Amino acid sequence: MTLLEIFPSLRSAMTPRLDPAVWPASTHVDDHDRITVAGVALADIADQYGTPSYVLDELDLRHRCRTYREVFPEAEIAYAGKALLTRAVATWVTEEGLSLDVCSAGELAIALSAGVNPRRIIMHGNAKTPAELSAARDAGVGRIVIDSHAEITLLAATLTRRQNVLVRVTPGIDAHTHRAVATGVTDQKFGFPLEHGQADEAVRRVLGQPRLNLIGLHCHLGSQITEVEHFRTAVDRMIAQMAQIRIDHGTILTELNLGGGHGISYVCGDPQLDLSSLAATLDDALDDACARHRFPRPRITLEPGRAVAGRAGVTVYRVVSVKHVTGGRTFVCVDGGMSDNPRVALYGAHYSVALANRHSIAAPAVVTVAGRHCEAGDELAVDVQLPSDLHPGDVLAVPGTGAYHHSLASTYNAVGRPPIVAVRDGRSRELIRRETVEDLLRREVSG
Ligand SMILES: Cc1ncc(COP(=O)(O)O)c(C=O)c1O
Fold first, then answer.
1. What are phi and psi of 259, to 5 degrees?
2. How many CB atoms lie within 10 A of CB 345?
3. pLDDT tens, residue by residue, 126-139
4. What's residue 9's pLDDT?
5. Is the confidence at residue 178, as pLDDT, over 90?
6. Which residues contribute to the annotated binding site for substrate?
7. Where are the N6-(pyridoxal phosphate)lysine residues found in this chain (predicted)?
């Protein structure tokens, strides 16, 4: 007889800490001490669909869309598809009243094949190809965000009728995010800097093209931003620019797209962006800036990706081996890694990990969860606490993997990409199947 059988009340005290700020809202522990999401045991998903698998809580994702609409009732919310886009996700977000931001012909095709109204699609990309601009034109997307001088000329030549466009500007704001995702600073590849009149020049050129209907400006400050004050500065600078455009050209722009970048927690205690406080700050900043410049309040668009999809996702892995290095670390090696989650290697991201298929009363040990790939840096979580009796066959779950995991996945080492399994009301269904070795071989055209 186990201790838990003698003292059942110990169970709740001893279950792993599943912080609701990090795990999907529907995460629980069932009577067999297994972690469940939306009423489905992650261990059952591992058995049925194999590992690694991305698990996606549909209602969690839908709920986050609804929260955005409630907190920002007057703004347009355009889900950033680069975070995670499948036909089902495109359907869920648009059913919840969001628009959709895409940044490639591929993402556009997924959105269209899900039946998304093209008028609600915003097309991004710092290097859109002629084919992509033609695809956006043919689809009749609502807005194209212009990112370079070459694009102005190319788009104007491509269009057969007037197209609503925004100009992407970099407002020179350092939101203190990782260098690889700091897109609001001047010295990077996106948009036209406000500095040195570069954005002015782009606006002048766009206004000189009769087929381009400039309706607003766009900026995106970076990723994982947790302090709302950066957005106040952005509003100040962007409204000042819009007011200057009115003075210089007599054109009143009616749309201000402030991008995404809303930070979420990956581990317990991580800061995250407070949406209510962002709403209050934006309101305040718009009141101030518009009054100062006597400029009519533009319609605001926000483009969250991670904050909509990130916490709806959990990746399940199976432990393949546990290696104790004498004088070194203990490595818990799993059957996935940097091919399904490159964020650790790319950004030094941190994750929570939990044992998902059973409860252990073994003492915790500090371990490194390592991936299966041929890179020493292929580690999913360093110095995390897991039960010391972990063994091959155990199932580990990593929360916070709904955004920028499937979309960033690779086939490194010819390992096929994992499936996406949606869970809702105690049921699971595959949205994307696992990529097989046959899929990889099918791409080879000559031997
Ligand atoms: C233009 C634009 N909008 C929105 C986003 C979404 O950012 P996040 O997922 O951090 O909210 C990105 C991310 O790179 C972006 O480049």
1. 65, -160
2. 17
3. 999 999 999 999 99
4. 44
5. no
6. 306, 343, 347, 375, 404
7. 82
User: In the chain, pLDDT over 90 holds for what percent of residues?
Assistant: 90
Which residues, in sequence order, are bridge partners of residue 421? 55, 430
Q: Which of 61, 99, 303 to mutate to test the pocket of ligand 1 (most atoms within 8 A of CB)?
A: 303
What digits encode the pLDDT tens for the residues 329-370?
999 999 999 999 999 999 999 999 999 999 999 999 999 999
Q: Coil, strand or helix: which one is 400?
A: coil
In a domain, 33, yes or no: yes
Is residue 447 a part of any domain in this protein?
no
CA 404 to ligand 1 center in whole angstroms: 10
**305 and 358, same structural domain?**
no
**Same domain, yes or no, for 318 and 303?**
no
Asked, for residue 354, whether it belongs to a domain, the answer is yes
pLDDT at 196: 84
What is the pLDDT, as a whole number, of residue 211? Answer: 97
- Residue 412 lies inside a defined structural domain of this protein: yes
Atom of ligand 1 nearest to the CA of 223: 10
Distance 390 CA to ligand 1 centre (A): 37
Structure confidence at residue 4 (pLDDT): 43
Ligand 1 centre distance from Cα of residue 260 (Å): 5
The pLDDT value given to residue 447: 84
Q: Rounded distance, CA 174 to CA 112, Å?
A: 35
Among 294, 309, 324, the domain boundary falls at 309
Question: Which residues does ligand 1 sit against, CB inside 6 Å?
Answer: 80, 82-83, 101, 124, 220, 223, 259-262, 303-307, 403
Confidence band, pLDDT 50/70/90 cuts, at residue 185:
low
**Does the pLDDT value for residue 7 go beyond 60?**
no
Residue 387: the pLDDT is: 97
Q: What range defines the domain where residue 365 resides? A: 3-57+311-442
CA angle 116, 117, 121 (to 5 degrees): 85
pLDDT at 12 over 50: no
Domain boundary among 288, 309, 330: 309
Å from CA of 262 to ligand 1 middle: 9
| Strand duo 354-355 + 364-370: pairing | unpaired
- Considering its fold, how many domains does the chain have in total? 2
For residues 301 and 375, membership in a common domain is answered with no
Dig out the tokens for 2 from the structure.
Answer: 């186990």
Annotated binding residues for pyridoxal 5'-phosphate: 261, 303-306, 404
Instruction: Identify whether residues 382 and 284 lie together within a single domain.
Output: no
- Assess whether 101 and 167 both reside in one domain: yes
Q: Which residues are 430's β-sheet partners?
A: 421
**For residue 69, what is the domain's CATH number?**
3.20.20.10
**Tokens found for residue 294:** 């006597």
The Cα 98–Cα 68 span in angstroms is: 9
Mutational test site, ligand 1, from 223, 264, 275, max ligand atoms within 8 Å of CB: 223
What amino acid positions are annotated as catalytic residues? 374
| Residue whose CA lies nearest to ligand 1 atom number 5 | 260
